[in-house]
Amino acid sequence: LCFLIGSFNVDRFISFFCFLFFVVDETRKISFFIFFIICFVLAVRKETDGPQKQHDIIVSLVNTIGIIVANVPEGLPATVTICLTIAARRLAKNQVWVKELESVETLGSTTMICSDKTGTLTQNRMTAVHAWYDDEIRDVKAPNGGQDITKNPLNLNDPTAARLFRTAAVCCRAQFETITVKVAGKEKPLIERDIIGDASETALLRMCESYFDSIPFRDHFSKVFEIPFNSTNKYQLSIHALPEAPPPVAEREFLRPSVMISPFRNMTKKTIESPVVELEPEEAWDQPRSFAGSGPVRSIQMMEEEAERVRSRKNNRIQQFSLDYQRGEKEKMTQNFTSARTVPQRLVALKGAPEIVIGMCDKIMIGGKAVDLDATYTQKFQDTIIKLASGGERILGFAQIEFEDSIDPAEYNIDAKNYPTSGFTFVGLFSLMDPPRPSVPDSVATCHTAGIKIAMVTGDHPLTATAIAKQIGLLTKPTRDEIAKSRGVSIDQVDETESESVVVTGMKLREWTEEDWAKILNKKEFVFARTSPQQKLVIVEHFQKNGEVVAVTGDGVNDSPALKQANIGVAMGIAGSDVAKEAAKVILMDDNF
C-alpha cells in the first residue's frame, strides 16, 4: 500500500510486483495476484486523470497479465499462439499474407535478405530507351508518343535499324491480349494495353508497335522452330521461313506515319489486316466501373453487367494462359511446316545477353552490310555495354543469319542441333529501363538500421545491377574494384578487408572455393550478377552455413529453389508466378518490398 501514499508509477509498480510474483511460494501466488488487482484498481482510481493516462495504465495491466500467464506452463502455448496471431493480423493489414504462424517468428529473426532485382526491387515495367547499331547510340521514342526526341532519334530508314527491328519483332513470344468485349470509345494508350509475356518482351513489343504494326508484320515470317529463353543459355533462338517477294505498296500501313517505309518493303510478301483490339477508354478492366450519375448505380441489371464484364476479362486471361492455348500455339507452328517446306530461304533470329550473343557471331552489320567482327568493333561493343549498363539499363543483343536449307522444318531438333548455332551477324542492341520501386530506398535504409543485411541476386549484367543497387541505397560503400580504380592500382593491391561491399558475377562463383566464400560472407553489402537458379541456391546455402537467418524474395519460376531453401521465402503477390507463391511461406500482396 506504500505505492498509494506517494506518487504512483505504473511501470515501477508492475516491475516490483512481477519480481515478488516469481519469488513467492507457489501456494501463495493466487492470493498474491488478487492483492495485486486490488492495489492496482485503487491506484488507478487515485491517479487516472485523462484518457491517454487511462490507456497507458490499461496497456500496462494487459502486459502484466500476459507475463504472468506466459510463466504458467499450461498457458505458454496459448500465449505464443496469440502473440503470433496478432503479429500475423498486423502484417495482413500491411498486405502481407503469412501462410504459417511459425513464419512470423522466423520473419522477426531474419538477419539476411537475398532479393531478386527485377519485379522485386524494381517495378517490372520495362521500357525501351536506347538502341545501338552502326556504332551509334540512338534514342527510342516512348510507346505512348509522349516523349519528344530531338537529340539522336532512331530512324527506320537506316537499313541496319530495319534489320534490328525485324529481329526484335520476330524473336518475341509476347502478344497483345485478345479482348472479346468491345466498348465504344477511343482506345487506351498503347502503354496501357495488356500484353501476355515477360517484362523484357513486353517492352520490346510495345516499342515495335509504336513504330509499325508489329503483329501482322511478324506473321509474315512463319515460325517453324524455337528455343525459348532460359537462365542457363541466356538466349532465345527462333527459325522462320523468309519471304522472297517484296510486299505490295499497300503494305505501307505496316508503319506508323512518323517513320519510314522503305527498309521494310523487302521483308514481307503478303497482306494481313491489322487486328482490331477495342479497349475501355478510361477505367482499368480489373477495376469496378464507375457509372455516370451521382454515385454507383445500384440496379440489379447494372450490377449483373458489371459482374459479367469482370468475368469475361478473367476468363479471357485464363484462356490465354491455359494449356489449351499453349497447345494452340504449337498447332500454329505445326501448320507453318506445310507452307515453310516450299520456302528454302530461312531466317534464324537470336536474342539474349549481349556477351552470349556476340560470342556466337563472326560478323557485324554496318550500314546494312555484314562486315568482319574484328577487335575494333568488339572494343566499341564493350564500351557501349559499359556506358548503357552504368545507367542501370538492361541490355539485350540481337543477331541474325539468313541461309538456304532444304531440311524439313519439322525435323529441326534441339538435341541434334541441325540448325546454325554460330556464324551469326550481330545486328545491334536495345536497352531497357526498369526503374526502382519508389518505396524500396526507404525499406533498404530501414533494414540497414535494424542490422539486416541485403544481397541483390540477379541475372542482369553486373554494371546494371550495380547501378540499380546504388540508386536504392543497397551499395553505399566502394567495392575493391572501385577502390583500386580510384588509387590507380590493380585490384590485387587492395586488401579484401578494406571494402565492405562486393559485386560478384556468376562466372566467378563457378570457380570459388570455400576459402573464397569465407572472405566475403562477413561483408555488409552484396550484389550477385549474371547468376543462374542453381547459383542462387548455392548463395543461400552459404549464408545459412555462416549462421544467417536468410529470407529470400522473388517472383519468378527461377527463384523457387532459393525460396524453398531459405529460412523464409517471400514471393510477390501480383507479379509473382504460381510456382514462386507455392514455394514461399510469405506473400507480399502489393509487391511492396
Question: Summary?
Answer:
The protein has helices at residues 10-23, 29-47, 51-70, 76-93, 102-108, 117-121, 159-170, 199-211, 214-219, 300-321, 323-340, 354-359, 375-389, 440-449, 462-471, 480-487, 506-511, 514-520, 533-545, 560-565, 578-583, and strands spanning 96-98, 112-115, 127-133, 136-139, 175-176, 195-196, 223-227, 235-241, 345-352, 361-366, 369-372, 393-404, 424-433, 453-457, 501-505, 525-529, 550-554, 568-572, 586-588. By secondary structure, the protein is an alpha/beta fold.
Overall description:
A hairpin with a 2-residue loop joins strand 3 (127-133) and strand 4. The strands form 3 sheets. Strands 3, 4, 7, 8, 9, 10, 11, 12 and 13 form a 9-stranded mixed beta sheet that branches. Strands 1-19-18-17-2-14-16-15 form an 8-stranded mixed beta sheet, with helices on both faces. A two-stranded antiparallel sheet has the order 5-6. The protein has helices spanning 10-23, 29-47, 51-70, 76-93, 102-108, 117-121, 159-170, 199-211, 214-219, 300-321, 323-340, 354-359, 375-389, 440-449, 462-471, 480-487, 506-511, 514-520, 533-545, 560-565, 578-583, and strands at residues 96-98, 112-115, 127-133, 136-139, 175-176, 195-196, 223-227, 235-241, 345-352, 361-366, 369-372, 393-404, 424-433, 453-457, 501-505, 525-529, 550-554, 568-572, 586-588. Mean pLDDT is 76; it is low at 1-6, 180-184, 246-302 and 316-321. With 593 residues, the chain is an alpha/beta fold. Helix 1 runs parallel beside helix 3. The chain is built from 21 helices and 19 strands. It is globular, with a radius of gyration of 31 Å.
